[in-house]
Design brief:
By secondary structure, the protein is of the alpha/beta class. It is built from ten helices and 13 strands. The strands form three sheets. It has an eight-stranded mixed sheet with strand order 1-4-3-2-5-6-13-12, sandwiched between helices. A three-stranded antiparallel sheet has the order 7-8-11. The longest helix has 19 residues. The relative contact order is 0.18.
Length: 361
């Protein structure tokens, strides 16, 4: 993924505006509002923050401009990203499904009866359902919580598995990752399993990733676990490049949609999208895909009440990273998080990992 972030969509969409987002779903699957004034932000404040980041990012020097990857995840962006995960070139989803298809029952064996399974970020559940199916087959009474700041996305996600299980209970947590962490502190009477799929860890810097995982580790008990999916560098370069620039052009549309989202956020013609193209680059030295917009001709960015900003032909604007980790780098990451790998499941070629972490050696 170009840049999945905690609780991605900046603009909530009314229930029922997406397929599966039925207003009546809440009557059967609870959505728990865990937003706190201490940690959560209102939609207006979130949008203000994105607008401020857009302004500061555009005012940086030549070829140092950057934009927040939150711009990717409006309603259209979420729809396009789901299309990306079905593209043959996007190997990350395919490899993760490969691991889960072969090892879901082993993962389920590690989940105690009566546990809470909390997934960070709502999305299409075709991967998570493999674990839930295995838990159901084992007759384990567990509760699955999908955590996201976008309530309609929670409704859509949970609608996909409504009525599917007898032993597995379903619920949504409406809030940020910080809110989820605070909520978990209050739930100590049941085993807690955190699930973080999609190699979303790669969209943080390596330092930020270790700090983020440690934040959850600080509140987990020895019996609790944190399961994280992570992509490796062990792919052909052409395969990595194709994953972030698929032949069908879906990733390109997904990226350029973020520029159109700027105009929506400011309710003005801020950016002429036709003046830019999507330009991904795999940085072999840093071990990460870097996503850029390349300016095709001189253009001005016109943010209301601000002096127009000139963007030059050939200038690059960065908006996302996707870090890859080899085995040693994964070990460094776990050490930075203060965690111990309990078990690791690999794709058949050993180029994608699902690791179960503990904070008890």
């Amino acid at each position: 993924m170009l840049g999945p972030v905690p609780s991605p969509s900046p603009v909530p969409i009314p229930p029922g505006s997406r397929p599966g987002a039925s207003p009546g779903l809440e009557a059967t699957i609870p959505i728990i509002d865990i937003r706190s004034t201490a940690h959560s932000v209102t939609v207006a404040a979130l949008e203000d923050g994105i607008r401020a980041n857009v302004l500061s990012g555009f005012t940086k020097p030549y070829n140092e401009k950057e934009l927040p990857n939150m711009l990717l995840y409006n309603e259209e962006g979420l729809r396009l990203f789901e299309q990306i995960t079905y593209q043959p070139d996007y190997y990350l989803t395919r490899l993760e499904i490969d691991i889960l298809s072969r090892h879901a029952h082993q993962i389920a064996n590690s989940v105690p009866d009566g546990a809470i399974l909390l997934e960070l970020g709502a999305g299409a559940l075709r991967k998570t359902a493999l674990i839930l199916d295995a838990l159901e087959a084992q007759g384990k009474d567990v509760t699955y919580f999908a955590l996201d700041l976008d309530k309609p996305e929670l409704l859509r996600t949970l609608a996909e598995v409504k009525g599917r299980y007898t032993h597995v209970s379903l619920a949504g947590l409406w809030g940020t990752y910080d809110d989820g962490c605070t909520w978990l502190k209050q739930v100590k009477d049941r085993p807690r399993i955190i699930l973080w799929l999609g190699s979303s860890v790669g969209n943080m810097s390596r330092k930020e990733a270790g700090q983020f995982i440690r934040t959850f580790g600080d509140i987990l008990a020895p019996r609790d676990r944190f399961i994280v999916a992570i992509d490796s560098k062990n792919h052909k370069l052409n395969d990595i490049r194709a994953a972030y620039d698929d032949r069908a052009g879906v990733t390109r549309r997904f990226a350029l949609n973020a520029l159109g989202n700027i105009n929506d956020l400011f309710n003005a013609d801020v950016v002429d999208v036709s003046c830019f193209d999507y330009n991904p680059y795999y940085n072999e030295v840093q071990g990460r895909n870097e996503a850029y917009f390349r300016c095709l001709k001189d253009t001005q960015v016109r943010i209301p009440s601000e002096t127009p900003i000139l963007v030059h032909e050939g200038e690059y604007i960065r908006f996302a990273f996707s870090h890859k980790y080899d085995r040693v780098e994964r070990q460094v990451l776990w050490t930075a998080a203060g965690a111990y790998p309990v078990q690791e499941w690999m794709s058949q070629d050993g180029d994608y990992a699902l690791t179960m972490l503990s904070w008890s050696s």
